[in-house]
């Protein structure tokens, strides 16, 4: 069985959780390799809705192992609450089912305070951060002054590191006109207790994964956010603080790149974006509002409304390139039911110049307008479709055109929120290995 990476091919919120949950049936291990609790994966199984922010969505499957890799930044309070919530529902009864990397960095109270204070100070130049402390935590990681899960397990070490970092954080907050009310002793006590709660799950995740691969286990690497929010390859600076592309699956989990066999990108049948930044196919009219309402386009983490627009073939083709996608899974096709005309952005126009590939310069991209190709819509409801042939002819033609424009095949199509409302055309775990 191959090892598969599943990533977001747009600006996040593509429905990765549902697709990961579906393909987990063939995997033995699900690995989260980047991001933090600024990402929410929403799943509906048997009519019951579950929102997970840190624990991989594979946890809903009995007998599957889930790993939070070293590339994730962990808010231990959020993780502890997720664990308790799952256990209260009869899930995660075996602590061995969850592995938490000792080397994952920890979101501390000053990270959250700094995140909010900096965003407020930026005014109209806001990035659109969730205020969860993700960026400042990655910043401390790169500056080699961060705290990791292993530090929470040793109270003396934790106290020393808090003492070293807290004064500088307070100074910066004061310059920003903000403050952190919690005192040093209280922080150490609280996070030492959280360390004790998380200790049963904490281990050398890289070694654990190495042994799992050696034992013939099949891995599914679960990305958070989306390609165009990647700190290197996204619409910088309107990006998240980690690498969201498939290549980071290796770095963020501690396995070698040769362990990865296939890469699948998830895309909505239209597009959405949260926060600031260029978005050439955005719809600021009644059509965009209809997409938002019918699609339930409100953040799983923040509840804030998402910006909506037509499918952008240039952005998706870019995602195919930087991730090396083998295929795409299309979600929320059912949301487009009832639109008499459906459009796809096939080029950008900026002044007298036309782009057929996504420009890398942000200021150029901000000036671009989408050039559309129109396709006929359909009125039939899709929630009962379980085979490709069950879809209306116009819906099939739309998906086929998407695949043609981006140059990769479609492996799955989602026609509803529930796990079973998905048409699988090719399961990446059952397809032949690339090498």
Automatic annotation (TrEMBL):
<comment type="similarity">
    <text>Belongs to the adenylosuccinate synthetase family.</text>
</comment>
<feature type="binding site">
    <location>
        <position position="144"/>
    </location>
    <ligand>
        <name>IMP</name>
    </ligand>
</feature>
<feature type="binding site">
    <location>
        <position position="306"/>
    </location>
    <ligand>
        <name>GTP</name>
    </ligand>
</feature>
<feature type="binding site">
    <location>
        <position position="40"/>
    </location>
    <ligand>
        <name>Mg(2+)</name>
    </ligand>
</feature>
<keyword id="KW-0547">Nucleotide-binding</keyword>
<keyword id="KW-0963">Cytoplasm</keyword>
<keyword id="KW-0436">Ligase</keyword>
<feature type="active site" description="Proton donor">
    <location>
        <position position="41"/>
    </location>
</feature>
<dbReference type="Pfam" id="PF00709">
    <property type="entry name" value="Adenylsucc_synt"/>
</dbReference>
<dbReference type="InterPro" id="IPR033128">
    <property type="entry name" value="Adenylosuccin_syn_Lys_AS"/>
</dbReference>
<protein>
    <recommendedName>
        <fullName>Adenylosuccinate synthetase</fullName>
        <ecNumber>6.3.4.4</ecNumber>
    </recommendedName>
</protein>
<dbReference type="GO" id="GO:0005737">
    <property type="term" value="C:cytoplasm"/>
</dbReference>
<dbReference type="InterPro" id="IPR018220">
    <property type="entry name" value="Adenylosuccin_syn_GTP-bd"/>
</dbReference>
<comment type="pathway">
    <text>Purine metabolism; AMP biosynthesis via de novo pathway; AMP from IMP: step 1/2.</text>
</comment>
<dbReference type="GO" id="GO:0005525">
    <property type="term" value="F:GTP binding"/>
</dbReference>
<feature type="binding site" description="in other chain">
    <location>
        <position position="130"/>
    </location>
    <ligand>
        <name>IMP</name>
    </ligand>
</feature>
<dbReference type="InterPro" id="IPR042109">
    <property type="entry name" value="Adenylosuccinate_synth_dom1"/>
</dbReference>
<dbReference type="InterPro" id="IPR001114">
    <property type="entry name" value="Adenylosuccinate_synthetase"/>
</dbReference>
<keyword id="KW-0658">Purine biosynthesis</keyword>
<dbReference type="GO" id="GO:0004019">
    <property type="term" value="F:adenylosuccinate synthase activity"/>
</dbReference>
<dbReference type="InterPro" id="IPR042110">
    <property type="entry name" value="Adenylosuccinate_synth_dom2"/>
</dbReference>
<dbReference type="GO" id="GO:0000287">
    <property type="term" value="F:magnesium ion binding"/>
</dbReference>
<feature type="binding site">
    <location>
        <begin position="12"/>
        <end position="18"/>
    </location>
    <ligand>
        <name>GTP</name>
    </ligand>
</feature>
<feature type="active site" description="Proton acceptor">
    <location>
        <position position="13"/>
    </location>
</feature>
<keyword id="KW-0479">Metal-binding</keyword>
<feature type="binding site" description="in other chain">
    <location>
        <position position="304"/>
    </location>
    <ligand>
        <name>IMP</name>
    </ligand>
</feature>
<dbReference type="InterPro" id="IPR027417">
    <property type="entry name" value="P-loop_NTPase"/>
</dbReference>
<feature type="active site">
    <location>
        <position position="141"/>
    </location>
</feature>
<feature type="binding site" description="in other chain">
    <location>
        <begin position="13"/>
        <end position="16"/>
    </location>
    <ligand>
        <name>IMP</name>
    </ligand>
</feature>
<feature type="binding site" description="in other chain">
    <location>
        <begin position="38"/>
        <end position="41"/>
    </location>
    <ligand>
        <name>IMP</name>
    </ligand>
</feature>
<keyword id="KW-0460">Magnesium</keyword>
<feature type="binding site">
    <location>
        <position position="13"/>
    </location>
    <ligand>
        <name>Mg(2+)</name>
    </ligand>
</feature>
<feature type="binding site" description="in other chain">
    <location>
        <position position="240"/>
    </location>
    <ligand>
        <name>IMP</name>
    </ligand>
</feature>
<feature type="binding site">
    <location>
        <begin position="332"/>
        <end position="334"/>
    </location>
    <ligand>
        <name>GTP</name>
    </ligand>
</feature>
<feature type="binding site">
    <location>
        <begin position="414"/>
        <end position="416"/>
    </location>
    <ligand>
        <name>GTP</name>
    </ligand>
</feature>
<dbReference type="GO" id="GO:0046040">
    <property type="term" value="P:IMP metabolic process"/>
</dbReference>
<comment type="function">
    <text>Plays an important role in the de novo pathway of purine nucleotide biosynthesis. Catalyzes the first committed step in the biosynthesis of AMP from IMP.</text>
</comment>
<dbReference type="GO" id="GO:0044208">
    <property type="term" value="P:'de novo' AMP biosynthetic process"/>
</dbReference>
<feature type="binding site">
    <location>
        <begin position="40"/>
        <end position="42"/>
    </location>
    <ligand>
        <name>GTP</name>
    </ligand>
</feature>
<feature type="binding site" description="in other chain">
    <location>
        <position position="225"/>
    </location>
    <ligand>
        <name>IMP</name>
    </ligand>
</feature>
<dbReference type="InterPro" id="IPR042111">
    <property type="entry name" value="Adenylosuccinate_synth_dom3"/>
</dbReference>
<keyword id="KW-0342">GTP-binding</keyword>
